[in-house]
């Protein structure tokens, strides 16, 4: 959950979806919003609002850095922190 999920999800949602939407529309902000909404929808519905906010921050970071690794690290840190503080890790 801390390494594999962020790697897979960031390649899919930022590397593929966000990049394709940006190329198709020419607008980074549309790409960030679309990929973030899709990202939030594949998670638990009760977590969708905070996950959407996280995804927007990760999407903006990806746009600014051009690095998928920055997105993967941010996502992994969030997952690690979530597991550590939930008591389920």
Characteristic key phrases:
4 helices, mainly alpha, 0% strand
Topology:
Layout: H1 4-25, H2 28-41, H3 48-65, H4 68-86
Please describe what this structure looks like.
- The protein is an all-alpha fold and 89 residues long.
- It has one domain.
- Helix content is 82%, strand content 0%.
- It contains four helices and no strands.
- The chain is globular, with a radius of gyration of 13 Å.
- 24% of the residues are buried.
Quick summary of this structure?
The protein is an all-alpha fold. The protein is built from 4 helices and no strands.
Low-confidence stretches: none
In what range is the share of β-strand residues? under 5%
Count of alpha and pi helical runs: 4
**Mind summarizing the main beta sheet?**
none
Distance between the termini: 10 Å
What's the pLDDT, averaged over the residues?
95
Please provide the ordered H/E string of secondary-structure elements: HHHH
Radius of gyration: 13 Å
Count of domain modules = 1
How would the global form be characterised?
globular
Q: Could you tell me the number of beta strands?
A: 0
Structural class: mainly alpha
Helical content stands at over 70%
């Amino acid at each position: 959950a801390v390494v594999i999920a962020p790697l897979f999800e960031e390649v899919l949602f930022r590397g593929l979806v966000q990049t394709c939407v940006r190329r198709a529309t020419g607008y980074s902000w549309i790409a960030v919003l679309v990929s973030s909404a899709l990202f939030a929808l594949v998670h638990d519905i009760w977590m969708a609002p905070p996950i959407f906010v996280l995804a927007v921050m990760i999407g903006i970071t990806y746009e600014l850095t051009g690095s998928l690794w920055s997105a993967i690290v941010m996502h992994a840190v969030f997952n690690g922190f979530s597991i550590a503080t939930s008591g389920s890790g």
